[in-house]
Specification:
Order of helices and strands: HHEEHHHEEEHEEHHEEEHEEHHH
Number of domains: 4
Largest sheet: 5 strands, antiparallel
CATH class of the largest domain: Alpha Beta
CATH topology of the largest domain: Beta-Lactamase
CATH architecture of the largest domain: 2-Layer Sandwich
Structural class: alpha+beta
Shape: rod-shaped
Number of strands: 12
Helix content: 40-55%
Number of helices: 12
Distance between the termini: 133 Å
Strand order of the largest sheet: 2-1-5-4-3
Radius of gyration: 48 Å
Strand content: 15-25%
CATH superfamily of the largest domain: PAS domain
């Protein structure tokens, strides 16, 4: 600014002198010349200051670009690079000079070429583009996943090029792919199980995931269950009285009740174990419908009761038969010994019933063992 002001003073002095010698008697002209001198000085100072600020701004940009861990590219309207930041060497292995003069399409993976033209057109039309991911070829021939952010460069109101910032997201992309692979494997395991499985957030009691068996048992679609509170569909426990998180009960193959979507209660055999997914704790609940098992148990119990009743009645009939009668099973155990048999043998039933090894024959042959009457 000092040089600009000095130059303006010299020019203004010449102008003032010329005005004085040409029109020495007109004071108004002198005052007008003085005003012009002041204007010249101000204009020179502003222009010089703006020039310095532009230089400082460019220096700051280059300083930021050179220190940035991201790749910064400046291109012309055709996409040819006019500047590449030094980070290109660290991320891609190229010296900046190896990128300058080339188009991005020279480095893009063939399968991603369809994305680049659309993004370039958007920027060329004056709109910024954020977060589009492409595979960019490294110098060693491998590809890095790069996330790009592009914006137009405007000079004098006209778009003259593009500024593109690229961030290496290869590790992030690999982590996402590994996470997806783990999730796919987990879903495959859950869907192949014959038991209903539900994943629940222990803090909010919100259902995170369910398999097809669980959804069918509950009587609702997966989309209707995920994101809802488990007490609305699965567990009839009151809020604040969860057996696992509030009462700290252990549920391991325990008989519980499943609350179905239609309000019915279904008996289940349930287990709950804590698991960690993606660094966060969850509850994995698995259960099977034991309605049929309970009905089978009831039917078996009823059959056993009928059998016992039939046996009891048969024993009563045998006991009062007029002929001596005994019943021995295949193991030689006496299961019936009526009163007539007691009179004939002289052995009370209390001494012979439920005894095995053919002990019922000892009163006939003197020793226990199979005899003709068997």
């Amino acid at each position: 600014p000092r040089r600009g002001i000095q130059f303006s003073i010299i020019v203004s002095a010449l102008y003032f002198g010329m005005t004085y010698f040409i029109l020495p008697n007109i004071a108004e002209v002198l005052f007008s010349a003085g005003g012009r001198i002041l204007i010249f000085i101000l204009i020179a100072a502003v222009v010089s200051l703006l020039t310095i600020r532009m230089g400082e701004s460019e220096a700051r940009f280059r300083g930021v670009a050179e220190r940035s861990s991201d790749i910064i590219l400046l291109t012309d309207m055709e996409g040819r690079a006019t500047y590449a930041s030094p980070s290109a060497k660290k991320i891609l292995g190229y010296d900046p000079a190896e990128i300058v003069g080339k188009e991005p399409l020279d480095f893009i993976h063939p399968d991603d070429l369809g994305t680049m033209p659309g993004a370039m057109t958007t920027i060329q039309e004056g709109t910024s583009v954020e977060g589009f991911t492409l595979r960019f070829r490294r110098k060693d021939g491998d590809y890095a996943f790069m996330e790009f952010f592009g914006s137009p460069i405007v000079k004098n109101g006209v778009i003259s090029g593009m500024q593109v910032i690229g961030r290496d997201v290869t590790e992030k992309k690999r982590d996402e792919e590994e996470k997806k692979a783990r999730d796919d494997l987990l879903n495959a395991i859950l869907e192949s199980m014959i038991a209903g499985v539900v994943v629940i957030d222990p803090e909010t009691h919100i259902i995170i995931d369910v398999n097809a068996v669980a959804a069918k048992m509950i009587g609702a679609k997966k989309e209707e269950l995920v994101g809802t509170v488990c007490t609305n569909h699965i567990c009839p426990a009151l809020k604040g009285a969860c057996p696992i998180t509030d009462l700290f009960h252990t549920v391991d193959s325990s008989e519980k009740v499943l609350l179905r979507a239609n309000g019915e209660k279904c008996p289940i055999l349930k287990s709950v174990v804590p698991i960690i997914l993606h660094g966060k704790k969850y509850l994995l609940e698995s259960f099977i419908d034991i309605s049929e098992l309970n009905r089978a148990k009831e039917a078996l119990s009823e059959s056993e009761e009928k059998y016992r009743e039939t046996t009891r009645r048969l024993a009563e009939i045998i006991r009062f038969l007029p002929d001596p009668t005994t019943v021995i099973n295949k193991a030689g155990v006496v299961v019936a010994w009526n009163r007539s048999m007691e009179l004939l043998s002289g052995i009370p039933g209390s001494e012979i019933l439920n005894k095995g090894d053919h002990s019922h024959t000892s009163w006939i042959s003197g020793q226990a063992g199979p005899v003709l009457i068997d």
